[in-house]
């Protein structure tokens, strides 16, 4: 290898005289330390060969037995840095070594994620370990059950992930499955045999819950925002996203939970969860739907924001009818009401610490505390408030 390096550098001596990786590192750390360190890394080569053998010889059995997603090794384990202009001799050898080694590692990590989430989707008790591993194992925050959960929760998570999953799409929770779509047409009198170029697509699991990240969460938040549900756009399934999902579920007629399961994604794709304005003639106004337990801020016929709310319990029902905001009191009062907007007597739209998915208030329209200030700022004295079934 050293003889090849010398010959290659002599043949490309113009590049050798220019900027090089080895020159920079020798200058920074000294030749002895740099060369010793790089040869130490070569000692792990047998380990990477063992990993590569496992990828080729063992993982395919898991594809056949439990429908793990297959991978084309050549798309991961290959070398191509020789095409980089100016990379010669010593630099080329070690860059190609790293090129191959990185592909082996990444493919192995991908396969290991499938294994880990398939047989043990449970978070570690050490939060420090969870934080450290979440980069390479996004499932830690994106599907694995909490360390304090029960085996029933584990069983439910596995059911949601794997029951009904198509062949070859059984990927780990936080990563899209990679599928290939191939289209061909056999020869007919009107058209010769035609084969389209294969199309690689990513299939994302239709599930998101607290702490989830990834393209499915981003899509979910964008869709919620387009329907005017108040959500964050951070790409992380946070409390604001959960509240928006709760409101959407209420409007769409789904079970009232804070998690986006497959039926939520399917419902959104079908156009469900649209809030229909009843009183566009009232201009800037509020429409509260007691049957749905949601509240919307509306400007004419345009819905601006939709919130999950909790109205009066059966023993203390919320009054129904058309009212107007007559008093606004900022801050928190003695009853724990936050940023209150009164529309008749002691009935108000206000924030509160507890906003369950059902009607449970003393008659007011409760809003989640984080939403109270924005609603308070939006409403004005004299604005119409409709409270209807």
Structure, described:
By secondary structure, the chain is α+β, with helices and mostly antiparallel strands. The chain has four domains: 2-119, no CATH class; 127-203, no CATH class; 215-269, Muramoyl-pentapeptide Carboxypeptidase, domain 1, CATH 1.10.101.10; 280-388, L,D-transpeptidase catalytic domain-like (Beta Barrel), CATH 2.40.440. Helix content is 39%, strand content 17%. It has helices spanning 2-11, 13-16, 21-29, 31-42, 45-57, 59-66, 89-119, 127-133, 151-162, 215-226, 239-252, 262-269, 369-378, and strands at residues 177-181, 184-185, 194-195, 199-203, 284-289, 294-299, 302-308, 321-324, 327-332, 338-344, 347-352, 365-368, 384-388. The protein has a five-stranded mixed β-sheet with strand order 7-6-5-13-8. Strands 9-10-11-12 form a four-stranded mixed β-sheet, with helices on one face. 29% of the residues are buried.
């Amino acid at each position: 290898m050293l003889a090849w390096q010398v010959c290659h550098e002599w043949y490309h001596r113009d590049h050798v005289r220019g900027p090089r990786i080895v020159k920079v590192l020798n200058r920074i750390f000294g030749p002895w330390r740099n060369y010793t360190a790089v040869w130490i890394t070569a000692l792990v080569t047998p380990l990477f060969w063992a990993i590569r053998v496992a990828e080729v010889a063992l993982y395919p059995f898991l594809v056949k037995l439990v429908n793990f997603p297959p991978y084309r090794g050549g798309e991961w384990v290959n070398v191509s840095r020789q095409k980089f202009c100016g990379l010669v001799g010593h630099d080329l050898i070690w860059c190609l070594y790293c090129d191959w080694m990185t592909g082996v590692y990444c493919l192995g990590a991908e396969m290991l994620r499938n294994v880990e989430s398939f047989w043990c989707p449970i978070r570690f008790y050490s939060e420090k370990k969870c934080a450290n591993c979440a980069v390479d194992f996004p499932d830690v925050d994106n599907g694995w059950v909490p360390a304090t959960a029960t085996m029933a929760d584990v069983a439910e998570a596995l059911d949601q992930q794997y029951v009904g999953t198509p062949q070859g799409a059984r990927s780990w929770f936080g990563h899209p499955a990679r599928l290939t779509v191939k289209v061909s047409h056999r020869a007919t009198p009107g058209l010769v045999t035609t084969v389209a170029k294969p199309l690689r697509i990513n299939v994302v699991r239709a599930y998101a819950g607290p702490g989830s990240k990834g393209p499915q969460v981003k899509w979910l938040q964008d869709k919620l925002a387009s329907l005017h549900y108040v959500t964050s756009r951070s790409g992380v399934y946070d409390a604001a996203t959960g509240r928006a999902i709760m409101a959407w579920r209420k409007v769409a007629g789904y079970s009232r939970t804070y998690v986006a399961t497959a039926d939520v994604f399917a419902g959104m794709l079908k156009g469900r969860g649209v809030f229909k304005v009843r009183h566009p003639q009232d201009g800037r106004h509020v429409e509260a739907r007691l049957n749905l337990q949601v509240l919307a801020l509306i400007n004419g016929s345009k819905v601006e924001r939709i919130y999950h709310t909790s109205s009066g319990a059966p023993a203390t029902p919320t009054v129904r009818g058309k009212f107007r905001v007559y008093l606004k009191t900022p801050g928190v009062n003695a009853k724990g009401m936050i940023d209150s907007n009164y529309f008749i007597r002691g009935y108000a739209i206000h924030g509160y610490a507890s906003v369950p998915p059902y009607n449970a208030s003393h008659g007011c329209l409760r809003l989640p505390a984080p939403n109270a200030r924005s609603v308070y700022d939006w409403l004005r004295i004299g604005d119409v408030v409709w409270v209807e079934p």
